[in-house]
């Protein structure tokens, strides 16, 4: 009987359905309000570009919406937990369930099950939708909302060092040997670091080695003269490997893509602690939806008539928000090397799992 967390099928469905509906309602409210506030600040920038109109504003909303859903789903689960349990407590339903012989864990079991489902949905949504939205929106913002790039995985404002020289471009698109730079500038510098000449071109492609600039023009500093060069090859030290390694954006890559990026960086001798922490957090982050019912459970127990219901709800909310603060702090410390990546991503989850379980057992079991 101690392991029978779902003694009543009807009660389980009732609680899970009530909880899920409140999660959706709270999430929709938060996303709509925050999206409206965000559009107030961004609509002017979008419409300032010639040719942009309502379609582009809706395009921005469709890209920004998934980001807000992913960010505020755990908060929605926390608030839905407090609302659900507080209403059950206020209507004496918790007392009725406990009088029927249910323990606090059995009352919370349907909510925890719903949290597991939400965690799975959140993980799949992040992998399939949010990563693509992040990549597209970042690329669109890099061109100041002029046009949604055909290759969202490309990057804007890139630069590479070739010894003393500098190779810059406004955008990099394509993969591997098919990588193409647009609006390219190559600075040739002397031993003192002073610019000797500047070469500009609209387009550059990989020449193996170096990069072939099409219809390039040259400005020589010493003579202050410009001339046309045609097609030339520059920056032989800038390899495809350097270009690929510079593409890593954890929020815009799926779990498998980020794994390959980490392996590439490690093989090149680069530091990957920040990326490894983000990799683990892609798993531990969605699981916070399982943790929220446990942290907010304090709002559902105790006598509603004692006047402590509001205080219990505040305590549950404080525990939930404390988790998010410590989780972000641990992730930041892991990015700077203060914690190992695995501990930075998982320590807050297990810490508050023990805290929530301790509070529940000490107060209700």
TrEMBL record:
<dbReference type="GO" id="GO:0043190">
    <property type="term" value="C:ATP-binding cassette (ABC) transporter complex"/>
</dbReference>
<dbReference type="GO" id="GO:0055085">
    <property type="term" value="P:transmembrane transport"/>
</dbReference>
<keyword id="KW-0472">Membrane</keyword>
<feature type="transmembrane region" description="Helical">
    <location>
        <begin position="12"/>
        <end position="37"/>
    </location>
</feature>
<feature type="transmembrane region" description="Helical">
    <location>
        <begin position="107"/>
        <end position="125"/>
    </location>
</feature>
<keyword id="KW-0812">Transmembrane</keyword>
<dbReference type="InterPro" id="IPR030923">
    <property type="entry name" value="LptG"/>
</dbReference>
<dbReference type="InterPro" id="IPR005495">
    <property type="entry name" value="LptG/LptF_permease"/>
</dbReference>
<dbReference type="Pfam" id="PF03739">
    <property type="entry name" value="LptF_LptG"/>
</dbReference>
<feature type="transmembrane region" description="Helical">
    <location>
        <begin position="309"/>
        <end position="326"/>
    </location>
</feature>
<feature type="transmembrane region" description="Helical">
    <location>
        <begin position="338"/>
        <end position="361"/>
    </location>
</feature>
<feature type="transmembrane region" description="Helical">
    <location>
        <begin position="68"/>
        <end position="86"/>
    </location>
</feature>
<protein>
    <submittedName>
        <fullName>LPS export ABC transporter permease LptG</fullName>
    </submittedName>
</protein>
<keyword id="KW-1133">Transmembrane helix</keyword>
<dbReference type="GO" id="GO:0015920">
    <property type="term" value="P:lipopolysaccharide transport"/>
</dbReference>
<keyword id="KW-1003">Cell membrane</keyword>
């Amino acid at each position: 009987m101690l392991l029978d967390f779902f003694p009543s099928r009807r009660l389980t469905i009732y609680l899970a359905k009530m909880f899920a509906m409140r999660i959706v309602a709270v999430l929709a409210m938060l996303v709509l309000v925050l999206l409206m506030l965000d559009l107030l600040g961004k609509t002017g920038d979008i419409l300032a570009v010639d040719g942009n109109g309502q379609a582009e504003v809706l395009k921005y909303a469709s890209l920004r919406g998934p980001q807000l859903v992913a960010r505020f789903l755990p908060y929605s689960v926390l608030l839905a937990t407090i609302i659900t349990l507080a209403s059950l407590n206020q209507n004496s339903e918790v007392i009725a369930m406990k009088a029927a012989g249910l323990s606090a864990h059995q009352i919370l079991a349907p909510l925890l099950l719903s949290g597991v489902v939400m965690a799975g949905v959140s993980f799949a949504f992040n992998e399939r939708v949010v990563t693509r939205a992040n990549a597209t929106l970042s690329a669109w913002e890099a061109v100041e909302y002029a046009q949604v790039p055909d290759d969202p995985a490309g990057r804007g404002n890139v630069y590479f060092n070739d010894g003393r020289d500098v190779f810059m471009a406004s955008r990099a698109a394509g993969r591997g040997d098919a990588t193409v730079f647009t609006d390219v500038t190559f600075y040739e510098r002397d031993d003192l670091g002073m610019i000797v000449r500047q070469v500009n071109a609209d387009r550059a492609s990989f020449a193996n080695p170096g990069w072939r600039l099409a219809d390039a023009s040259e400005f020589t500093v010493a003579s202050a003269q410009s001339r046309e060069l045609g097609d030339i090859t520059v920056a032989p030290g800038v390899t495809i490997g350097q270009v690929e390694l510079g593409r890593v954006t954890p929020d815009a890559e799926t779990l498998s893509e980020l794994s390959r990026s980490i392996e590439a960086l490690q093989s090149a001798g680069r530091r990957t602690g920040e990326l490894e922490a983000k990799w683990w957090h892609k798993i531990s982050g969605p699981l916070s939806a399982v943790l929220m019912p446990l942290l907010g459970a304090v709002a559902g127990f105790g006598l509603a008539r004692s006047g402590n219901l509001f205080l219990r709800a505040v305590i549950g909310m404080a525990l939930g928000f404390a988790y998010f603060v410590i989780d972000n702090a641990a992730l930041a410390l892991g990015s700077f090397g203060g914690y190992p990546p695995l501990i930075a991503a998982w320590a807050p989850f297990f810490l508050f799992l023990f805290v929530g379980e301790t509070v529940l057992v000490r107060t209700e079991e």
